[in-house]
Each structure stands twice: as C-alpha cells, then as structure tokens.
Amino acid sequence: MTGNLLEVRDLRIGFTLDHGTLEAVRGVSFRVPPGGTVALVGESGSGKSVVAQSIMGILPKAARVMGGHILFRDPGNGPDAPPVDIAALPRDGTAMRGIRGGRISIIFQEPMTSLSPLHTIGNQIGEAVELHRGGSAAEIAALTREMLGMVGFPDPARALRTYPFELSGGLRQRAMIAMALVCHPALLIADEPTTALDVTIQAQILKLIRDLQAELGMAVLMITHDLGVVANVAEEVVVMYHGRVMEHGRRADIFHDPRHPYLKALLRAVPRFDMKPGERLVPIRAIEPDATRLTARRVTPPEGADPNRPVLDVRALTKSFTIRKRGFLARADDPAAHRVVAVDGVSFQLRRGECLGLVGESGCGKTTVSKMLMRAIRPDSGGVVYSDGVTDTDVLTLEGDRLKAFRRTMQFIFQDPFSSLDPRMTVLDIVTEPLDIHGIGSPAERKAFAKELMGLVGLDVRHLNRYPHSFSGGQRQRIGIARALALRPEILICDEPVSALDVSIQAQILNLLKDLQRALGLTTLFISHNLAVVDYVADRIAVMCRGRLVEMAPRAALFREPRHPYTQALLRAVPEPNPDRPLDFDHLAGARASDPGAWPAPFTEDDAHLPRLVEVADGHFVRRAPMIRTEGTAA
Amino acid sequence: MIDYIARRLLVMIPTLFIISVLVFVIIQLPPGDYLETLVAELQSQGEAVSQERIAFYRQEYGLGEPIWKQFAVWFWGLLQGNMGYSFEYEMPVADVVGDRIWLTILVSFSTILFIYLVSFPIGVYSAVRQYSLGDYTLTFIGFIGLATPNFLLALILMYLANQWFGISIGGLVDPALRDAPFSLEKLLDILGHLWVPVIVIGTAGTAGMIRRLRANLLDELHKQYVTTARAKGVPPRKLLMKYPLRMALNPFIADIGNLLPEIISGAAIVSVVLSLETTGPMLLGALQSQDMYLAGSFLMALALLTVVGNLLSDLALAALDPRIRLGAEAAR
C-alpha cells in the first residue's frame, strides 16, 4: 500500500452543533493510486463532500477531524519522502496552503457561483500560479493563457480579460478546471463537476478531465451521485452511505457484482435505457400510495366524447423576450439585437391519457412553453386549444371567471420542492389552498379530501399540521403533487419534477407519478433534461433545441432510431450506468451540436434554410427540409 | 460608459426641476410671507414700518404676483446662478451663505471620513469574528451610538469637556478669531473644535454602517467563490481583502449618496446645540421667518448635493463592479 498517492485511513469528521456533535464521516478508508481515477459515490448527506473538504483542508468552521489520517505522498517530493498527514496539518498553515491549490486541487459543482464575479478569469487563474509557482506578471499570464488553451477556450488571450458572468456555464467550468490544473497538481478532486451542466456539456467536460488527466499524469478523485458518470470515468469506486463506506471495488465488480444491499438497491433505482418494457424502478425507500379510492377519482370524459380528440392542441406558439437596457432614457439602439426568441413556432398535441416528454437543454425554451400553457406568460402568437372531447376551448383568450374555471383542468408540479412550498403554511393549508381559491367544499370536506390526497401520495395523514421544513426533499415534492391533484385536473405539467432529488428519491417520485397518471387517467406533459428519466415515464417524446421542436416520436422509436442530428448528439452524450456501454468520447458532437446553422443538410437552419416538422414514419416527426413527394404532414 | 454618464446627467435635469417645484410649494405652504411676518414683528415692537420699503420689496420680488410667476422668477434666477435675496439679512443669499457653506462641507466630509475610518475595520472584525466577545462588545457600543439622540450626545460632551478640561467646545472657531482673516492659526483652531461635532454627528452613522458592513460581509463569507479561493491556497488575510470584502463594499459605496443629505440635515439640530457656524441653523431660521429665497436656495443646494452624490456613488460602483460596468444583459 506504500505506492498510494493518497490514503485515507479511518477518517472521522464531526460537526459541532448546538446540541452536541454530529458525526458526518464515521471511519472512512480508501486510497487513490498515482494517476488513477477513484469515484466517491453517495446520496446527499452521505458525507462524500465532507471527505473532499477534509482532504483540501477547507472544512467549514463547525467541522473538525475527530480521528484518522489523510496521508498524501507527493510524487514531487521524491519517491522516498514520507507521506504528509493532511489531517494533522493546521488548516491555514503554510504547509497546508502549499498543498492546497498547488499539489491537490478541487473543482466544484456550481460553475455559476464558484468564481468571483469581480475579478477577471485571468486574474483568478493567475493567482494560483502566483501563489504556488511565482514568476513575473508576463510569465504568469503566459502560463494562464496556455492553460486556458488546454481546457478549450477558443481565444485564450481574450479570455484572460473576461469576467465569469460573460461566459456560459460550460466555459465557466472550463475556467474552473484551468484554475485547478494550472499548477499541475498530483491530485484533482472533482466535486460533482458536471451536475449543474447540460448533458452535452457534461460529456465534453468529462472528456476534458480525462484528456488532461492523461496529459498531466494526475490522479482524480471524482465525487458524484451520478452512477452514469461513475461508469464512464472511474477505475475504482467507493460507495458511501451515512458517513460509512458501504462497498469498495473496481468499476466492473461494482456494476456487475454488487454485494452490499445498499449498492444493489441504488443500482436498481436508476433509470436506464436498456430497461425491459414494463420494468419498474425499485426505490430504496418505497412508498405505499393508498390506492383504494384512486379509481373513484378517475377523470371521466363527458358523454359522447371523442376519445381520439387531443386534450390540448398547441399550435405554433411563439414567444420572444426583449432584453431591456437599463435606464428609462435608454435608447432603443437596435431592437432586433436585444430580442431573444425563446420559443419559435412550437406545435404539438397532447392525447388523452398519454405522457408526453419534452426534452431539451437549459435555455431551449421548454419551461417557457409550459408557462404559456398555464397562461403565466402571454405568447406573441400561436394558439392553445383545450378539448374535453365534445367542446373546444381557446385557452389563450380566456379571461376572468372562465380562465379561473379553466385553471382547474391544468395543474403544475414544480422543480424545486424547497422554494415551491410556502414555509409559513401547514401542509393542510398548502394542499387545501387550491380548493379554497376555487371555493370547493366546506372546510370539513376539504380536510377530509386533504387526508385522501395524503394517502394518494403515500404521506401520513398525521403530518397535515406540520410545516414544510420538517419534510425531506422527496416528501416535499409529494406534497407538491398532492396540491397539484387537489383540483382533480385532467392535465398535469411536471417541470423537472425530479432533477433536484437524489437518485433513490427520484425513483420513488417517478413511480408515484406513473401510478397516479394511470390510476387517475391524467394527461401529462413531462419536462426534463434527463433523457433516461423521460424514457422511463413518457409515451411520446418531443425534443426541443433553441426554441424549436426538432423531433417528436413515440418513445421506443426515438431511442431506436433518432433522426435529427441534435437528438443523436443528445443521446450519445448521456452517460449510462453500465460500464459495458461507455460514452464514445472520441465522437462527441461538441458545442456545435446545438447550433442550428451547423446541422448537416437537410437539417440545416439558417436564413436560407427553413426546415419544418415532417412525418418520416408513423407518428415520428423530424424537423428537416421538405422531402420530395412530401404530403405536407407538418404537425 | 460616457453614454451612461451623459444619460444620467440628462435625467438629473427633470429631477432637479421637480424638486425645485416641490421646494417652492412647501416653502409657500404656511400662510403669509416674509413681509407680513416682518411687519407684524416690527409693529409688535412698536416700530413704524416704512411703506415704501415694503412696496419696494413687493415690487422687486413680485411677492404680490401669483405663485407660479414667483416661482418662474426664482427659478430663472437660479439658472443664472442668482440665488435671490435674503430678506432677513438684507443681502444676496450667496453672500449670506458664503463662508458657512465651506464650514458645512468641512464638517460633513470630516464626518463621512470619520464614519468610514471607524466603521470599516470594526465591521470587518465583527463579521470575521462573528459571535466573539469583541463582536458582542462592539455591537453593543454601536447600538448605544445608534440609540442616543445626537443633540443629547452633544450636550453631554459639552458638559464633560467643560467639567474636566474647563474648555468650551461650542462653535467651530474661537470667538477671538471669528472675524480674523484665514490663517494657519485659525485652521488649527478649527481643527481643534472640529472633533466634537464630527463624533456627535458621526456616531449614529458609524453604528449603522458597522451593522451593514457586518451583515454584507457575513453573507459573502459563505459564498462558494470564497471557498474556491481558499482551495487555491490563498492566505486568509489576502483572501478576505481580495474577495468577500470587495463584494461587501458595494452597498457601502451605494450609501454615499444617502449619507450626504442625511448628515447635512441631521446636523442642523446638533449645530444649534453646539452653535456651529454651519448652514443648518441658518436654514432653520430661514424657514421660521419665511425668508423664502434663502430657504429655497438652501434646499436646492441640498437636493443638488444628493443627486450628485448618487451619481458619484453609481459611477464608483460601476468602476468597482464589472457586472454593472459591462451591462446587466450578461449578468445572469
């Protein structure tokens, strides 16, 4: 074991709280060989990030190492030098500061907040050089520029002078990586480096880390909750749960021969592309929805309804936003330059009882679409027609009481279960508020119905008088679902309902939504950036890019036979939790995947080419130039 | 950037115009005018009033004219730099204000400097050593400063200085030197007197500023970019100075615009108590006797100072914060 770059031995870390000490890490041991890649996997609260912080010596004030060793053998000190015990070093002493950022570096999850907005990229990266290597200002600038070029900045010299807020999320994370690697550390700790990024950017960043690792000969400690990432980058895997190591082994063993029940459960909880039809995810903590009265609540269409009529017909929705300059005397220089088309002619139909998945990267306009359907934003043009099977209603022209009445039919589930519940309302108030607004039932009836809803989402009715803060993220999301169901809607719009949740909870919520949809006969629009999740819940999938629908198809057809280059790039970039099907890092689409001008013919979109949705197979629409002998089946 | 400054300067024109209307209306609100006050006062003292003088004033300043016309005359004068004529002092407002405005500016700027010099290190200390004994002690003293009325503090200081040192600290200049031409001796004398009003006027502002800086800095200290810098190996002191402190400065600078008028108007009562030859007591007197042009010009000067102060603080913010400088579009 002497050859290890880093060896963590029986590490214990406690947090001092008002009422005693909480042990967040309880005897963790693992090692990182020189040049190797180790993944530290666990859900939030498992203590994995605390371990990373202790290796960096940047634990929060309330935390302290209560026992164990973190032995770091710096290859730069020569082969026979004794290892340094980081756990015993004073946190802000010279020795620790020399290691921190110089020999061991870290990159964080949030590229948006990890860089100081007041200093240029060049300044912040150069600072690391200055601290650990020294040199003249020109030398530092040269080194920084070289590093920025290595991490893929198109114009490194210019990048030196840019501020973080001028960059996209992907470029910020690249700048962060440049900052971590500019001193050529022996170990890079990547703490959820791609969690906040879109899937195509994630693949690029993973490739970048891998390439630089080979080039600089450093080891990587990857901290993540994403088993797909683990399967693609790690050589060894350490699985943590509640501050302890559950299982530890080589990647193949971990995925093919999991031993510990927790790891087995974790693997079963992740949506995969190769799931058999009808196969269900198994949540780690399964919930038991009270199904007794489910069928009684089923939405029944009125007499003589045409079951083939779409519930919602969305026609050519368009919305552009004007980015306003500050000051009321601002000149309207060039209005076109400050208009952003967020949604551009989006059309689709929601069929009764189906779940349509809407997929796209951040900023593609999928949330704007949902807000327009909910009448939270007024579209510039286009139409939304609701049909109960007999009569049609133009949703966009509804006003006053008719709009209020219509709102009962369509409800929304939000992404963030923490900010979408009022912390000053009890669960009972939250769940019955929609009934209150629409004046449904007496208080006693509402309370009875609230109890029923709690059963529906598998929550204890005794919790009705509690406040949201006493619930976990998954429980809160279930409260949000109960609230959305209170008005017995026909249509449910779910905007990234599981992206803020841990893997195990994710499976629980997905199963719940699936069951409820079937039992209550709901029609669902499921918005997500996660293709595997959409694959699990949706019947049909629509793919959006830059405000336009580029492809729409039944679920199986889309995954079997993606036609549009953007869909293909998206599918290629998803890391699967299966080491036998690794990402093809050499054929990543790169940043141009989402540039409509760079798509090959017949998909190109620019001033000269204006493709439209064309039906290429039964129910399979692709945005492309019209084919010869087309029947004009644009949806 | 030049574009931005030009735009801001343009916006100042309507702002100041609206303020001037408001000022004029408010001054005219009490019944009567200065001449009526004067006549009543003189008659109560049994003196005869020269009808010719009154008629002359009425004619000269159009006091009999409708209010909008009076305003127009005054405003037109202001534009030409003519602040009008003080009835009470019987000389042009500019001459009345003259010296006093410089003393006011001296007191105000010393006070602002005092506030910044004292509150800055204390605020930083309080934030970095949150909940330490020092933090609690300084916070406690700060709250006492915030809660004590300024004039009371002035009285206490005057009493103590008299009692212990046997000196009079009222005024800004020793009576013997009041009419003397400006000299080194006079300057030193002014500086000797200056500390009392500066402390008295500055305490409340200092306490408020400490609280704000502490709160700002505490917010920033736990941000991710601070951790990033720590992970880079930046030494603690340099880290504090370069990253969170710089961010915490923003509200500090944004406050300059508010601080100026607050100090000048808040100092009026203290100036009366300490008999300082600043503009505060004069404004008070002018408002009482309805010496409308004197009061009006004063208030306009205050308004101008506020508007300019705000512009300066905005420019300083833009210089310090690239997010403001480079536009809000990118700052998402």
Q: What is this entry, summarized?
A:
The complex is a heterodimer of chains A (635) and B (332). Helix content of chain A is 30%, strand content 23%. Chain A has 19 helices and 22 strands.
Task: Give a structural overview.
Chain A: InterPro entries: AAA+_ATPase (IPR003593), ABC_transp_ATP-bind (IPR050319), ABC_transporter-like_ATP-bd (IPR003439), ABC_transporter-like_CS (IPR017871), Oligopep_ABC_C (IPR013563), P-loop_NTPase (IPR027417). The complex is a heterodimer of chains A (635) and B (332). With 635 residues, chain A is α/β, with parallel strands linked by helices. Helix content of chain A is 30%, strand content 23%. In chain A, the strands form 4 sheets. Chain A has an 8-stranded mixed beta sheet, with helices on both faces. In chain A, strands 6-7-8-3-9-10 form a 6-stranded mixed beta sheet, with helices on both faces. Chain A has a 4-stranded antiparallel beta sheet with strand order 2-1-4-5. Chain A is globular. By secondary structure, chain B is an all-alpha fold. A two-stranded antiparallel ribbon of chain B has the order 1-2. In chain B, helix 5 crosses helix 12 and helix 8 crosses helix 12. Chain B has 2 domains: 95 residues, no CATH class; 220 residues, MetI-like fold, CATH 1.10.3720. The longest helix of chain B has 38 residues. Helix content of chain B is 77%, strand content 1%. The interface between A and B is large, with 39 and 33 residues.
Task: Sum up the structure in keywords.
heterodimer; A: 635 residues; alpha/beta; eight-stranded mixed sheet; six-stranded mixed sheet; 22 strands; 30% helix; globular; disordered C terminus; B: 332 residues; mainly alpha; MetI-like fold; 2 strands; cell membrane (chain B); transmembrane helix (chain B)
Architecture blueprint of SSEs:
The complex is a heterodimer of chains A (635) and B (332).
Chain A: E1 6-17, E2 20-32, E3 37-41, H1 48-56, E4 63-72, E5 84-85, H2 94-99, E6 104-107, H3 121-132, H4 137-150, H5 156-159, H6 169-181, E7 187-191, H7 199-216, E8 219-224, H8 227-233, E9 236-241, E10 244-250, H9 251-256, H10 261-269, E11 312-322, E12 339-350, E13 355-359, H11 366-373, E14 381-387, E15 392-394, H12 400-407, E16 410-413, H13 427-437, H14 443-456, H15 473-485, E17 491-495, H16 503-520, E18 523-528, H17 531-537, E19 540-545, E20 548-554, H18 555-560, H19 565-573, E21 612-617, E22 620-624
Parallel strand pairs in A: 3-8, 3-9, 6-7, 7-8, 13-18, 13-19, 16-17, 17-18
Antiparallel strand pairs in A: 1-2, 1-4, 4-5, 9-10, 11-12, 11-14, 14-15, 19-20, 20-22, 21-22
Helix pairs in contact in A: 3-4, 3-6, 4-6, 6-7, 7-19, 13-14, 13-15, 14-15, 15-16
Chain B: H1 2-28, H2 34-44, H3 51-61, H4 67-79, E1 85-86, E2 91-92, H5 93-128, H6 133-147, H7 150-165, H8 184-221, H9 224-231, H10 236-242, H11 244-254, H12 256-274, H13 279-288, H14 292-320, H15 322-325
Antiparallel strand pairs in B: 1-2
